[in-house]
Amino acid sequence: MVKILDVTPGNLWNHLVRLRDKGYVDIKYVLADRPRRVITITNKGADETLRLLNEIMKILKYLKS
Fold first, then answer.
1. Distance between alpha carbon 23 and the CA centroid of its chain, in Å?
2. Hey, where are the domains in the chain?
3. Element (H, E) at 39
4. Which of 9, 16, 36, 50 counts the most CB atoms within 10 A of its CB?
5. How far is CA 4 from the centre of its chain?
6. Taking a C-beta distance cutoff of 8 angstroms, is the pair 25, 39 a contact?
7. What is the CATH number of domain 2-64?
8. pTM of the model as a whole
């Protein structure tokens, strides 16, 4: 994921913590073959994402006309 986003692990972690603090994602620790962090989007995060996408669509429609 870090390579896809082109960010350092520390930078990614800081972003995830900020998103968690705002209630947009949950961060859970699980023990599998090794300890892992599982990041899931919350209902609040999904709602905010949809709101932002709708705003982007409005802007694109305006630019298209």
1. 11
2. 2-64
3. strand 35-41
4. 16
5. 14
6. yes
7. 1.10.10.10
8. 0.79
